[in-house]
Structure formats: C-alpha cells, structure tokens
Specification:
Number of strands: 4
Number of domains: 1
Oligomer: single chain
Helix content: 55-70%
Number of helices: 9
Radius of gyration: 20 Å
Shape: globular
Order of helices and strands: HEEHHHHHHEEHH
Largest sheet: 2 strands, antiparallel
C-alpha cells in the first residue's frame, strides 16, 4: 500500500503546481519583524491553494509517521486533513455555486488576518483571530451536499469523523490504550511497527489519499481547469483499480 501512496504524491505535486500557476504569486512585504511573503490579493482561489499546500504536506507527514510506526500521531494528522478537506470544499462550493456567502467572506477575512498587528509584538498586539465555528462550515457543506444525499446524514458523518479523531488530538484514554500490548505486554513508546495497528492505519491512510485526490478534482473544477480534472480522474481510476475499489463515478455527480 505504501508504494501506492508514494506513487500518488508526485501526481498531487503536478496538480498543485498546475493550480498554483493560475493565481498571482506571493509578494515580499515588510513587517516589523522583517520581510516575509504574503498573497496580496487574498482571493478565494489563493485560499484554496494555501489549503492544498497543507493537504500535500500533511499526507507526506502522515505517511512518514506510518512508515515509522507512529500511528497515533498519524491519526492526529488525519484530523487536520479532515478539516483541510472541509475548508477546501467549503471554498470550492462558494465558487461552483456562484455565491460567495457572508460566511465565506468572514472565513476569508479570518484566514488572511495577521497573527499580530504591525508591531509584530505578541504582548501588545490587540488582534484576535475570528474563529469560524466548525459546525457552521459543516452545516454549509451539508446544505450543498443535501442535493445529492440527506443533509442530516452528511452532518452526522462529518461530526462522527471529527469526534473519533479528536481522541487522538486530545489523547483520550481509550486511544492511548491502543498503544498497549505485545509479548511481553507494554506500552509501545517507539512506534508500533510489527503490530496489527500498522495494517489498520495503512488502510485508513488509503482513504485520506483518496479523499485528497477528490479535493484536488473539486479545486480544479473551481479553477475551470478541465484538462487537470480529466488528468486526475484518470489517475483516480488507476488508484481504485490497484486497490480493487470503484468510487470515481460519484465525482461527476457533484458541482
């Protein structure tokens, strides 16, 4: 399975570069702490690009952790990637449905806000980032997805996924106990290579690579890049074929 993940990453790199070239590049700006790069236009398209940056980086981090047996830490990245994919779909649907809502504008304002004011002093800066409640983003997604499924079911799936992985983020007891076992019985403090957990988390990572491929497809649709959409859909069929699945027919049914 790991070979498939390594095969997929260059595909995502190509897709990312293709989309990145379609927005104005970051510019060097001066702040009190020194020069740094920023997107000047702060567009919805640039926001999608930035979220995709973390998607590809997060998938690489999750794979690296899996290959060294640190599956609990891998699961933390899964939670991060879940929210990244939600954000990407949220922004994409604002474009493909021709309506950048007040919630989108609030999201973008918070997303691009600097951490500190022009002084870059964390002690004196009055700025506080507006945190958009995750439930609002999920409610919006459920409304859009409701055209293709039951909105309440969509909300429940998103909520359940988030709750399940929050146990890894916040180190709940039952999640930590997954690190106990073996002969002699012990807590695995140096990763879990050689245990049944590796197969479980490898299978789980398959889903994340697949869902991130879909996020790139939806992003390409938002950018109006049909050539990239076709390229990714061909690869997704290969990805499915290797693992004996067939879900790609659902891609074309969404905006």
């Amino acid at each position: 399975m790991n070979r498939l993940f390594h095969q997929t990453l260059p595909i995502l790199d190509i897709a990312f570069t293709t989309l990145e070239r379609q927005v104005p590049p970051p510019q060097l700006v001066n702040r009190a702490s020194g020069p740094t790069f920023r997107y000047i236009e702060q567009s919805v398209y640039q926001a999608i690009i930035l979220k995709l940056v973390r998607v590809v980086s997060g998938l690489r981090a999750a794979l690296l952790l899996l290959e060294h047996g640190f599956v609990q830490e891998q699961a933390v990245y899964h939670r991060v990637i879940d929210e990244l994919n939600e954000d990407i779909l949220f922004l994409v649907y604002g474009i493909t449905n021709d309506e950048i809502t007040p919630l989108h504008k609030r999201f973008l304002k918070a997303f691009y806000e600097e951490e500190f004011d022009e002084s870059d002093n964390p002690l004196t800066s009055p700025q506080k980032r507006d945190m958009i409640p995750r439930k609002k983003i999920r409610a919006y997604l459920a409304k859009i997805e409701g055209a293709y499924s039951n909105p309440s079911d969509t909300m429940e799936v998103l909520r359940t996924l988030s709750k399940a992985y929050s146990g890894f983020v916040h180190a709940a007891s039952i999640h930590i106990m997954d690190m106990y076992g073996g002969n002699p019985r012990r807590f695995h403090l140096s990763g879990m290579l050689g245990t049944p957990r590796i197969k479980e988390y490898s299978d789980d990572l398959w889903n994340y690579y697949y869902r991130c491929l879909l996020s790139f497809v939806f992003a390409a649709k938002a950018f109006g890049d049909k050539k990239l959409v076709d390229y990714l859909e061909v690869y997704i069929k290969q990805y499915e074929s290797i693992s004996g699945t067939s879900y790609s027919k659902d891609i074309k049914e969404k905006p």
